[in-house]
Amino acid sequence: MAEAKKTGTSSSGKKVVQAEKKEPTEKAKKLAEEAVKNNTDAVWKPTPEAKKKATTFRIIAIIGWVIAIAIEAVAIFWLLRQDSTQSWYLWALIGALVIIAIFAIAGSQFWKKANDLDPAKKSEPVRFFVQNQLGVIISIIAFLPLIILIFTNKNMDGKQKGIAGAIAIVLLLAAGFLSADFSPNSVEDETAQQVANEGQIDDYTAIVQELTGADAVTWTLSGTVYHLCADASAVNQESADNQIYAGTVSDAHTAGKAGLTLQVAQELRECGFEEPANLADIEATIRELRETEAADNQ
Fold this sequence. Notes:
This protein is mainly α. It contains eleven helices and four strands; from the N terminus they run ββααααααααββααα. The protein has helices spanning about 25-40, 50-75, 90-115, 125-130, 135-150, 160-180, 185-195, 200-210, 250-255, 265-270, 280-295; strands at about 5-10, 15-20, 215-220, 245. Strand 1 (about 5-10) and strand 2 (about 15-20) form a beta hairpin. Helix 3 (about 90-115) runs antiparallel to helix 5 (about 135-150).
């Protein structure tokens, strides 16, 4: 399993890490591409919550970019026209460049988070490129005109141009690099994950959400099933790498886990969740799902 991000510890002190998503098979990718191309019902769509969060992130990103470009405008139309012999002039120009970089980079980070939640389609290459590399484009807009005007400014001496120009170029390169998305998410990628994990996962997800209120489970490297929380006794026993993995039901199935534990009542108590009135029916459904999957794998 790929290295995973630590998210905390369980009650027993075992490290809890966020599971890494595995690469879908080529077959799943091809099926996903066909689904997106033909716009079928199998195409992945972000949840309303993810869509709302992505919109919020994009608004924050745009605000950051607007501030960066506004400061650039102030530098171009006011600062560069001031007397360059003033002691504060060069420091003010450097300060403006740094602030532009901060807001450009911050905006790009929020934009990339939004694209992870609500990605574009690879089948629309122009939109896919622009949406995922918009941070780089904004960084160029925020710096390149200013860099040109610094080097062509007749009021600045050679030393001032060299210092301010060099800093501006370095900040442009840094902002461009940090704003670039080298492995952008896409509708095709999410659809491929969905295709790879199709089947009983939706049923298990509905059960887990009914029991805990969220699509979140835990498992161990050597375990065969997944569990309701990091404090469940089953995941706190000694395991192959002595770590607890956390993720969605889909992540757990991708990691090779057969299904939800049958010890639901026990884990509800261990995890601090209320026991639903229809627990017996839920447990019966889990057994049926496990039996069906076992029969399909024979």
